[in-house]
Amino acid sequence: MPSNKDKILAAAMELFHEQGFQATGLEEILSHCGVCKSNFYYHFKSKEELGRQVIQQKIALMNEQIFGPSLDNKALSPKERISRLFRLMQAVAEEHDCRRGCYIGNLAIELGGRYEALRGMISDFLEEVQQRIEACLLEGTADQDINLHGMKAEETAAALTALLQGGMLLSKAHRSSMALQYSGRLVEHIVGNGWEGDQHAG
């Protein structure tokens, strides 16, 4: 049986994705999970502290379900890892009928400068993703598996990270994964890997 803390975290993670961090009130979270306010403050100092732990938990899940099976998957070639990342993110978008977008990307847009500690966590994570893409590109170019056509690996990794987040944003705006599909085809030209359907891990 989940603990009260786990119930709060699960409810907050769901509601933050569905409604946004700022639009979700503490009372709504507690009503959703059936935990009293005194118990909430036993585990969390504030809603911002809850947000910090939710982000940590979500990052761990994304590493397990998306980035581990793609960017960190040494059974795949570097170009296959990058292509698989885009396929998995497309599957994530389609899993919820393209209504939700990227959990981390949504928070980055919403929080802005109001919750600097949370924004910093998100910035650090997106920077880490970019560095992992860059590592794949460097490995691929060293193996002559990837041709960056004169661009630096760091520049290309930044562009691919932006392409991925932009595709997730447009999937939410248009309720369609077409932008992610087009992004995947562009990745074909950048890293030279075929684009085929894939399923979201987990």
From TrEMBL:
SUPFAM superfamilies: Homeodomain-like, Tetracyclin repressor-like, C-terminal domain
Binding region for DNA: 25-44
Matches recorded under Pfam families: TetR_C_13, TetR_N
Molecular functions per Gene Ontology: DNA binding
Protein species of origin: Paenibacillus lutrae
Domain HTH tetR-type: 2-62
Protein's name according to its UniProt entry: TetR family transcriptional regulator
Keywords, sorted A to Z: DNA-binding, Transcription, Transcription regulation
InterPro entries assigned: Homeodomain-like_sf, HTH_TetR, Tet_transcr_reg_TetR-rel_C_sf, TetR_C
